[in-house]
Write a structure and sequence with these properties.
The structure holds two protein chains of two kinds. In chain A, 82% of the residues lie in helices and 0% in strands. By secondary structure, chain A is an all-alpha fold. Chain A has one domain. By secondary structure, chain B is mainly alpha-helical. Classes of the chains: A mainly alpha, B mainly alpha.
Chain lengths: 122, 140
């Protein structure tokens, strides 16, 4: 089926491009983009598994996504806490904010290293 | 939560493929609406993931039937609402107990997010029924 071949090819390339952008410049936007491209591609592989079984590739996509979970969580939770903090509780929140800032940087670097080792175009 | 397998034996074209995939993903999302009613973290998470799978399928097949794009758009809003509720759940689980003011605010926001998701889901109902009864024609 031409449509399926083309869609698999396009979404795979989109994920590989997003992966490269994140590895080169691991910021919040690129993290979001690589996660979104991964989820889309994963859902496609799962939807059409009967026609185009790609178990090894699917495992690779899942593993790469899992490697970015901690970075995403730290980033989002940090932004949420910064934005939703009760005015009288800034001091109480300071240790958690600092912990999240450290975790955001460390988890993003771990994600970058993990994604540097994987490719989706081969 | 593992996705349900889509049986594709004998599929002859992309419209038939779309029909089979959408039927399964729609059934999955509907089967998990209990989470939206119970409002518990696990149930909401599973429902959100099922909606995400349905949304991606709708977007993918939207080029075949433009009305699918409108459903996908609304599902994206629903996902945003559930995602925001989930983020608050995660933050609440690590928030120091002394931060009562922030906790109250987050809990209230979380409930608003779930309410918003419920409103969007109810508004989607006629579209889902149309898809289910093939009034949105995919030649399925």
């Amino acid at each position: 089926m031409k449509w399926l071949t083309k869609t698999l090819h396009d979404e795979r390339r989109a994920l590989e491009r997003a992966r490269r952008r994140f590895v080169i410049k691991p910021n919040e936007k690129h993290l979001h983009d690589v996660r979104t491209a991964g989820r889309r591609f994963r859902s496609l592989l799962e939807d059409v598994a009967d026609l185009a079984p790609c178990e090894r590739l699917l495992r690779r996509v899942k593993k790469a996504a899992a490697a970015t979970d901690a970075a995403r969580d730290a980033t989002i939770i940090l932004r949420l806490l910064e934005a939703g903090l009760d005015a009288g509780e800034t001091e109480l929140a300071r240790p958690l904010l600092e912990e999240l800032q450290v975790e955001e940087a460390a988890a993003t670097e771990r994600a970058r290293k993990a994604l540097r080792r994987v490719r989706f175009d081969s | 939560m593992k996705p349900e397998r889509v049986e594709l034996t004998g599929v002859r074209g992309v419209r038939e493929l779309a029909g089979r995939v959408l039927r399964v993903r729609l059934r999955e999302a509907r089967g998990l609406t209990g989470g939206l009613q119970r409002r518990d973290q696990r149930g909401l998470h599973d429902f959100r993931i099922a909606c995400k799978r349905l949304r991606y399928a709708l977007e993918r097949f939207g080029e075949l039937e433009p009305s699918l794009g409108e459903m996908a758009l609304r599902l994206a809003l629903l996902q945003d609402a559930l995602g925001e509720a989930h983020d608050r759940d995660v933050l609440l689980s690590i928030l120091p107990p002394a931060m009562a003011g922030t906790e109250r605010r987050l809990r209230a926001e979380r409930e608003e997010c779930v309410n918003r998701a419920g409103t969007i889901w109810r508004a989607l109902s006629p579209m889902m029924q149309a898809l289910d009864s093939h009034r949105i024609s995919m030649s399925i």
